[in-house]
Amino acid sequence: MPSSRKLTVSRAMSEAIAQEMRADPQTFVMGEDVGAFEGVFDSTLGLLEEFGEERVRDTPISETGFIGAGVGAAMSGMRPIVELMFVDFIGVCMNAVYNLAAKNTYFSAGNCKVPMVLMTGTGGGYNDAAQHSQALHATFAHLPGLKVVAPSNAYDAKGLLTTAIRDDNPVVYMFHKGLQGLVWMASPAGAATEVPEESYTIPFGEARTVRSGRDVTIVAISMTVHGALAAAEELATEGIEAEVIDLRTLVPLDRDTVIESVKRTGHLVVADEDYRSYGLTSEVITSVVEAHPDYLKGPPQRVAMPDIPVPYSRPMEDAMLPNAERIASAARHTTGRG
Amino acid sequence: MASGRIQVRVPNDLWDPSETEEGVIANWFCEDGAQVEQGATIAEVAVEKSTYDVVAPAAGTLTIAVPQDGVVQPGTVIGYIAMG
Fold this sequence. Notes:
- The complex is a heterodimer.
- Chain A is α/β, with parallel strands linked by helices.
- Chain A has two domains: 6-194, Thiamin diphosphate (ThDP)-binding fold, Pyr/PP domains (Rossmann fold), CATH 3.40.50.970; 208-334, Rossmann fold (3-Layer(aba) Sandwich), CATH 3.40.50.
- Chain A has helices spanning 9-23, 47-51, 63-75, 94-101, 104-107, 137-141, 154-166, 223-236, 255-265, 280-291, 314-318, 324-334, and strands spanning 6-7, 27-31, 56-58, 79-86, 117-122, 147-149, 171-176, 193-194, 208-211, 216-220, 242-246, 249-251, 268-275, 301-305.
- In chain A, the strands form three sheets. In chain A, strands 3-2-4-5-7-6-12 form a seven-stranded mixed β-sheet, sandwiched between helices. Chain A has a five-stranded mixed β-sheet with strand order 9-11-10-13-14, with helices on both faces. Chain A has a two-stranded antiparallel sheet with strand order 1-8.
- In chain A, helix 1 (9-23) packs parallel to helix 7 (154-166), helix 3 runs parallel beside helix 4 (94-101) and helix 8 (223-236) packs across helix 12.
- By secondary structure, chain B is an all-beta fold.
- Helices cover 0% and strands 49% of the residues of chain B.
- Chain B is built from no helices and eight strands.
- Chain B has strands at residues 4-9, 23-28, 35-36, 41-47, 50-55, 60-64, 71-72, 77-83.
- In chain B, a hairpin with a 2-residue loop joins strand 4 and strand 5 (50-55).
- Chains A and B meet through strand 1 of A and strand 2 and strand 3 of B.
């Protein structure tokens, strides 16, 4: 096969699911429009054709029902991959997620495993308004018992999804709609990458340093990785060398990689498309200052969504997204050069 | 082994251009200059929100003629594959 094969994130996800379904007959997919439509965000391409309706199950518009069914199937020995089309819809099925999936392993002293993947579309930037544009990373990361994954590119998307499917614990796999490579939604150039044909896993809790730099550490995840890299390019023209870290997973969180970087750079910016307060950005900053109050030489910066519902209006939404311009501005501020 | 250069085309009957004037290259899955295998999916054409996979008609070295987001019609040559 061509050594330079590039895949979009959506194709990489579909390939990971197909390979795991071939390997294990207990693995199946269900959700709204995952069958003939192949996923509203193309996450189940080709699966119905290969595996049929028993294993690629279109559900009614009842997240309360089918996500509860996913938890039950997982506890009964199957490995369900359940798609919640938009993470914004989590409200109606939260009990199944945070009181059942997240806790039943504990309640049963490990006798009942819950090997379920909840995969869900996140993020804004395409003017879909307040109920279809949220990231909600921290809503899940805050709850003990769930692992939380948010890839930024196709290579990571395949490896992390394979790891998620093989994990005996519930994993919330949060894919950003704007990274999928959809024909109707532009994605950044770095989202599609070379992806090996063979199956591979990426361990949870291992951040990746995607750019090295000595002056400031920019920690990002999912879509903000691309904004951080663009910001780093801009900052480099001003003589500020930024190190960019892609966390890849919120739970477990690779605090060590961040701390090691900040020890060298002395400055920290954290960028996340979730809301600003009580979120990932605060958690990362606290992880550094709590353990090493002497490392930072400037005020750490949060670049995140303001604590308001996401506006429908394009100029208003653009004004609040944690984009390259805002990340660069925060880096200049904390390094005292802006 | 065959040698020479073969065109990569948008199929002539992919859609009716009298109803829908043009489509676009939504994605290239290989870089310009990449080695491709016959039958590998190398590009994706989007027409009216539907997509169509373009496969390599031969093995060889790909030259991209129409870049991503470039406008295409049925029959448009979007690239070449140098064989052998």
